[in-house]
Design a protein that fits this description.
This protein is mostly helical and 71 residues long. Helices cover 75% and strands 0% of the residues. It contains 6 helices and no strands.
Length: 71
């Protein structure tokens, strides 16, 4: 997880939250959510994700692919 910290310091967390929230393509939102989950393994990135309400945004806007087909 130490190698993930520089991504958070470089601004990846808010950028990926924005993609997960606003991108027109579902697959792009999915990929941003996956990247955020990986970055959240670092405690500083997770704190930033929580502070920016990223978990709520992921939950609301990024639906698992198998749920998308059922809905």
């Amino acid at each position: 997880p130490q190698t993930l910290r520089p991504f958070g310091k470089a601004g990846a967390v808010p950028t990926l939250i924005n993609l997960a929230h606003k991108h027109a393509l579902q697959t792009a939102r999915q990929n941003a959510g996956i990247a955020l989950a990986a970055l959240a393994k670092d405690e500083d990135n997770l704190a930033q994700l929580k502070e920016l309400h990223g978990i709520e945004i992921i939950h609301h806007y990024v639906k698992p692919l198998n749920m998308k087909k059922k809905a």
